[in-house]
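Note to self: keep these together.
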Amino acid sequence: MHTRRLVLRPPSITDAPFYLALMSDPTYIENIGDRGINNLADAIRYLHEFLAKSGDDNALRVVEERESGRAIGLCGLLRRDFLEYQDLGYAFLPSDTGKGYAREAASAVLETVVSERTCAIVSQSNVRSKKLLEDVGFSFVKMIKFPATGEDVEYWERPRP
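Structure:
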């Protein structure tokens, strides 16, 4: 999948250094959660597990700058047992936020949706993420408990245009 500035591609084991940088970042841990990735071996283990369970309906893509080929984030649709619709997920390196990359990647991913709705979950304190969801057509619906942590999170939905 391509946009004007980005390439969205499936992850591979060679992305382990990028996953380590992204998922060990304090902002990622605060807003998404601690995946226990503290070194390169952890990132490789995580990728092996993620790739083993990935499929067409559970597809986070690595987002690269088209010009440089540098990995800058993740974006895609996730299938979660506790949600009725696919969940839009995204995360970007702190050095690459504020440049419109997340909006561009999310818009491209949402163009592929075939179900009547897409959902997203976001922590109450993640103001930037909520702004992005509004910008790409999502609306807040309700608060739900995230099963893995028991945390109250915001549940948003977007109808297919």
